[in-house]
Amino acid sequence: MSYETLKHLHALTVAATLALFLLRGYWMLRDSPRLQARWARIVPHINDTLLLASAIGMLVVAGLNPLDQPWLMAKIVGLLAYISLGTLALKRGSTKAMRIKAFVASLGVFGYIVAIALTKQVVPGLG
Ligand code: HEM
Fold this sequence. Notes:
The chain contains four helices and no strands. By secondary structure, the chain is mostly helical. Helix 1 runs antiparallel to helix 2, helix 1 packs antiparallel against helix 4 (about 95-120) and helix 3 runs antiparallel to helix 4. Bound molecules: protoporphyrin IX containing FE. Protoporphyrin IX containing FE (HEM) binds near residues 55, 72 and 76.
């Protein structure tokens, strides 16, 4: 697969992960039982696996090493933070207030990751 194809797959799965996360966040806010629907627990995992696979594919095809590229390292750290906060928001947060805070924070981290992707800077906007 070419770098361009992988990048398209990456951008597509990025859009899908955001849409799925917003939908599940809305269900969390409404205390909707749909959050527990079988597909709502499985499809995001399949999509997120493709998102990560396309990212790793690009690194392999382009011979990029995150240890040499601070912006890639920042994306990996950002992704880990997004996953932890997302799990707190949709599943593990013990109170609704905590889940809401985690949901808002996850969206902030997601925006940061997209900003890194577009600027290839650890602190987008600085230099
Ligand atoms: C939630 C996690 C992630 C989000 C939201 C995200 C978002 C994006 C976006 C919006 C782009 C730009 C696509 C375009 O210009 O068409 C991109 C590109 C890219 N991402 Fe990610 N990404 C994520 C995770 C990762 C991870 C973990 C890595 C690898 C460490 C990675 C590596 C890359 C690479 C290599 C590019 C292509 C840069 C280029 O050639 O312009 N991404 N990402």
